[in-house]
Design brief:
heterodimer; A: mainly alpha; about 75% helix; flat; B: alpha+beta; Dipeptide-binding Protein, domain 1; Dipeptide-binding Protein, domain 3; seven-stranded mixed beta sheet; about 35% helix; about 20% strand
């Protein structure tokens, strides 16, 4: 187990190294001038800016310097917010995205298991059909549509009630988190529902369930220890990447709900060719994704005794 | 068998019910935990309604985090808006947009020098007086070549400023000296007619040396990394979330401040969110854009309009290797399009005015509006004349057939509809193929600088309140002249406008520039940009400004409920 964990961690570090390298060279080959601004600048000023950001050196030595700084955990200074360090940007804004993501995953995971189990029990009857129709909607409609509709709904509800039921946008209290995290988790919830339904159906008539029943085990125990625990395995598998995807992919929702998350910085940096922020956020998110996948693989071994980690 | 199956199903459903209960309880616990965390890390946004008369506070939205609050480096509008509330220069613009005393209580401007007398009760937010040295330090900071400030040029009227910025003179050579704590003497590089207006600009704001150095390169990065001398101070700043401005009790002119708090409680550039927050009575002002205009019109609000002073135009590439360096081709393009059609039928946004001149409508001359004294040439679409010029151009250029022209544009809703309008109208009226080259901001700028375009959809906003901010744009030496237009006769007029002190002489020079731009078709004006917006009915005194803090809430006040 420990050896396995160590091996996976090493593989992860190599993956992150490749992510950093690919992003570095990809970013530098994107057309556009990161230093350009509305006002044209003189050669002299431009040269000074290039020195400040190390752009005066050949690309390969820039790469060397960047990797050296990366090893020391220093992402550099932002191009667009010249007095902020990228480390500070990540430190201040990732917790917000993470909070939003955790809540969204909690919604998605719990909801997905609940609805999935319910549809399996009511297979091919009305509740199943209704829920599965909603699931298809949830999977096919992108989150920014839900976000815009959700916000509009809130405005109209608040208007109808004459007081603020839930805030329309902003951040700071749980009330602010509810709508955006629900919207963010909706797609994953729908996906997990489908997954849970099919894996429940596979198990519901399995031999070991019948054995458990014939042993005279109470139904509660059968459900929690035999049905749910077996059916939930595929859900756990996709949960890892989902956590990373939700935590990193919330930029539209963050923009719409005026949430100070890292996703906004990630996207704006690309639009503004803010090299250091692009690198910082991409490497950070990449490392986070790799880490989550490893964690899930390790968890798998704990949940399913049939899996041996070697 | 069937009964048994059903009973086991109902049992499982009871299980699920238990699970759902546990799930909800778990979620509640999670949210309670998150709430604790959130309260530890941040102040909540949007607890208040847009106007809070009890605490004399308003809530506003800003479209982005202010990227740079170091006044010597700041360039963008959001930073300018915040700085305009928390800082003050020698002079400032008042509620009627007239120049008024700021830190300076009196001043004298001569042909080659100026003296500003600072008021005794102008204080920094830590209680120390604002001194003449603070201005000298700030200006040297902006001019230091290592700092690469993009607005350094605005200090060039001060003697030796340009040389210092280019690194050929030491910072001590700057023609700005503190004779004592309260007297600032300035020597000019050359005579300048509008220096008083420049001193209200953010690059001219004071910075105190000991504080600046104590921040170790992070001046302006956080609420406590900035020293204030304006009507408000930033009490707290949660990056990306809120920026809370409170009345500055040490500000010398308390009489002009009515609000105790301006809380920028929301930060997003999404126009629909802005509109939704306004509808929900959470913010006092929202701009109206093509994305949210229809929905705003349905509300029957009173819509305000404001010309923000920016001019948008087709900039033609005058580099000799480009077809657009041919005057007849430029004339053909000019005559084949119609800014009226563009503004009223294509863009269809309230507040926009069809472009007629390099000099937008807000600019003043000695007797009122510059435009009233020197009306811009009238434009009428004339397809027949356009085709004649096109035929002449074809002969002069020796072309069998025109290749397609490249129209470089940005990537947003307004520029998309515009570029398609020009593509259609040039095809229809001239038979010319236009290739639209749509680029992100940084790449469009890179291509504009390197000259990879025939026509570019460009815009220009004023840096200071004088026609020269537009006029010198097409001087042959101006780096922002991306089409590389070069005409000694035009340069001559720019020099007159720069050096003359007599208002009539300067206006005559601007009138000549306006004529040359038109005759030579240096650019094809598209529109003067307008802004449509709505404000909270109980908030009065919000000032929109062409230069300086916009919107300016520093004189705003809350009226009692009707």
């Amino acid at each position: 187990m420990l050896r396995y964990a160590f091996k996976r961690l090493m593989q992860g570090i190599i993956t992150v190294f490749f992510i950093a390298t690919a992003t570095f060279f990809g970013m530098h080959s994107v057309p556009g001038d990161p230093l350009a601004n509305d006002k044209a600048m003189t050669e002299k000023i431009r040269a000074n800016l290039e020195v400040k950001y190390g752009l005066d050196k050949p690309l390969l030595s820039q790469y060397g310097i960047y990797m050296g700084n990366l090893l020391r955990g220093d992402f550099g200074i932002s191009y667009t917010q010249e007095n902020r360090r990228v480390n500070d940007i990540i430190r201040e804004h990732f917790p917000v995205s993470a909070t939003l993501g955790i809540l969204a995953i909690a919604f998605a995971g719990l909801g997905g298991v609940l609805w999935g189990a319910l549809t399996a029990l009511y297979r091919n009857r009305l509740p199943d059909l209704v829920i599965m129709l909603l699931v298809i909607l949830g999977i096919s409609v992108p989150s920014f549509v839900f976000a815009a509709l959700g916000q509009l709904l809130l405005v109209n509800l608040n208007d109808q009630f004459g007081f603020s039921l839930l805030p329309v946008a902003g951040w700071g209290t749980v009330a602010h988190m509810l709508a955006p995290s629900l919207v963010l988790g909706l797609g994953t919830m729908a996906y997990l529902t489908r997954l849970m339904r099919s894996s429940m159906l596979e198990i519901i008539n399995a031999d070991f369930i019948r054995t458990a029943k014939s042993k005279g085990l109470p139904a509660t125990r059968i459900f929690t220890h035999h049905q749910l625990r077996n059916a939930i395995l595929p859900v756990i598998t996709v949960l890892g990447p989902s956590i990373a995807a939700i935590t990193t992919g919330g930029f539209v929702v963050e923009m719409l709900f005026a949430i100070p998350g890292l996703g906004r910085y990630f996207v704006q940096a690309v639009q503004q060719l803010d090299y250091t922020v692009i690198m910082g956020t991409t490497v950070f998110y990449g490392a986070f994704l790799v880490f989550m996948v490893i964690v899930v693989d390790l968890l798998y071994g704990l949940i399913d005794p049939r899996v041996r980690l070697e | 068998m069937t009964t048994k199956a059903i009973s086991s199903t109902s049992l499982a459903i009871r299980q699920l019910g238990l699970f759902a209960f546990a799930a909800v309880a778990g979620l509640a616990a999670l949210m309670w935990g998150l709430n604790l965390l959130a309260n530890l890390t941040a102040s909540a946004s949007g607890a208040n309604s847009a106007v809070d008369a009890a605490s004399n506070a308003i809530t506003v939205l800003i479209s982005s985090e202010p990227p740079q609050l170091d006044s010597s480096l700041s360039t963008d509008q959001v930073s300018g808006m915040v700085l305009g509330h928390v800082m003050e220069g020698l002079l400032r613009y008042d509620e009627n947009n007239e120049l008024a005393p700021g830190v300076a209580e009196s001043w004298r401007i001569n042909a080659d020098s100026a003296v500003f007398r600072l008021r005794e009760n102008a204080l920094w937010s830590d209680g120390k007086p604002v001194t003449a040295q603070d201005f000298v330090f700030a200006w040297r900071l902006a001019l230091a070549p290592d700092n690469a400030s993009q607005y350094a040029f605005i200090l060039y009227p001060v003697k030796n400023a340009e040389a210092i910025n280019q690194g050929t003179q030491p910072p001590e050579a700057l023609g700005a000296r503190a004779l004592d704590d309260r007297t600032l003497e300035i020597e000019f590089e050359r005579p300048i007619a509008f220096f008083d207006k420049l001193t209200a600009f953010s690059t001219y704001y004071p910075v105190r040396q000991d504080f600046y150095e104590s921040t170790d390169g992070t001046y302006g990065a956080d609420a406590d990394k900035l020293l204030y001398n304006g009507p408000f101070v930033i009490a707290s700043w949660v990056h990306g979330q809120s920026l809370d401005m409170r009345r500055n009790p040490l500000y010398w002119n308390q009489g002009r401040i009515h609000l105790d708090r301006i809380n920028a409680g929301y930060i997003t550039s999404d126009p629909n969110t802005s509109l939704n927050l306004f509808k929900d009575d959470k913010i006092v002002l929202t701009g109206l854009t093509p994305e949210n205009l229809t929905s705003a019109l349905e509300q029957r609000w009173q819509i305000h309009r404001f010309m923000d002073g920016s001019l948008f135009f087709l900039e033609l590439n005058h580099r000799p290797d480009r077809l657009t360096s041919n005057l007849n081709l430029r004339k053909a393009l000019y005559l084949a399009q119609d800014p009226n059609e563009l503004v009223y039928k294509v863009i269809k946004l309230p507040g926009y005015l069809p472009g007629v001149s390099l000099f937008p409508s807000f600019l003043d001359g000695p007797h009122g509006r510059f435009r009233d004294d020197h009306p811009p040439p009238a434009h009428r679409i004339d397809v027949a004349a356009a085709r004649r010029h096109l035929a002449l151009a074809q002969a002069e250029l020796g072309l069998d057939e025109f290749p397609s022209l490249v129209l470089l544009t940005g990537d947003n809703t307004v520029s998309n509809v515009q570029s398609e309008y020009f593509q259609a109208v040039f095809k229809k009226n001239l038979g010319l193929d236009i290739k639209i080259d749509r680029q992100i901001f940084k790449q469009r700028l890179a291509k504009m600088t390197s000259g990879e375009f025939d026509i570019v959809m460009a815009g220009w906003g004023p840096d200071y309140d004088d026609p020269l901010t537009f006029g010198d744009l097409f001087a042959s030496w101006n780096l922002n002249n991306r089409g590389r237009y070069s005409n000694p006769a035009y340069d001559e007029q720019v020099r007159i406008a720069q050096n003359a002190l007599d208002a009539e002489v300067r206006m005559a020079a601007f009138a000549n520039m306006q004529r040359i731009i038109h005759e030579d078709v240096v650019i094809i004006p598209s529109y003067d940009r307008g802004v449509a917006y709505v404000t909270h009915p109980r908030l009065q005194g919000v000032r929109r400004r062409v230069v300086g803090a916009d919107p300016d809430y520093s004189n705003a006040y809350i009226v009692p409920e009707a």
